[in-house]
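Lay summary. Proteins are chains of building blocks that fold into shapes, and those shapes determine what they do. In this project we predict the shape from the chain. Here is one chain we studied, written as its sequence of building blocks.
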Amino acid sequence: MIGLEVTRADVTSALALGLITELNAELTATYPEPGATHFRLDPADVSESSGAFLVAFLAGEPVGCGAVRCLDAETAEIKRMYVRASLRGRGIARRILDELESQARRLGVRRLVLETGDRQQHALALYARAGFARIAPFGEYVDSPLSVCMEKQL
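And here is the predicted shape, written in a compact code that computers can read:
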């Protein structure tokens, strides 16, 4: 997409926090029932040595984000994927995901995992098209009945 740039950003910056706030609001609207959880992302998780937080800019405006964090020497997790609703379907999420995969390779991991919600059909389709397959819930998602977990070998 012309004018789309995906770059590393500080997860604690106002820009990043604004996108994450939009994502959390959307998740709250999609999963309003008690017990629905929005899993956190700590700044240490996306430091240069253990992950990355990326922001997508279209014509200089922030339009989406995503993160990758190492879970161990072999595995990293995709987190906080988001594209503003009015701009979906233009390949922005795929570009963010591609850049996150590049960051995972930079970190030396061989496997990517992620969690998304069972009501996020567009996200599930994006991940399937990108080569992710469903797996059993892992880590903090084991007791989350609304979670769908996926993996991809790099």
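What the prediction tells us: The chain has three helices and seven strands.
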